[in-house]
Amino acid sequence: MDFDFFHRKLNASFEIHFGPGYDHKAILTEVNKLSDVPGQKRSPFSLIFLTDLKDQYFGQGIFSVK
Q: Domain range holding 43?
């Protein structure tokens, strides 16, 4: 999955696996390209999802997107 894949899915609904027992539906609201890193083959990008989580916060990390 790369920037183009997620950019085509803007405003789509996903299921995010934050950790054991923490699967939540989320809507992809923003996809941004980041500055290239010299020597890296992949182009970095960031994603912002909107969830209905109110009592929990998950920051930057590695999550599974389904």
A: 3-65
Distance between CA 26 and CA 65 in Å, rounded? Answer: 10
pTM of the complete model: 0.72
- Across the chain, the runs of DSSP E, i.e. the strands, are 13-19, 22-33, 45-51, 64-65
CA distances from 20 to 3, 51, 57 (A): 27, 17, 15
pLDDT tens across 8-46, in order?
999 999 988 877 887 888 899 999 999 988 998 888 898
CA distances from 12 to 3, 8, 26, 29 (A): 14, 9, 8, 8
Q: How many domains does the chain have?
A: 1
**Residue 4 structure tokens:** 């183009």
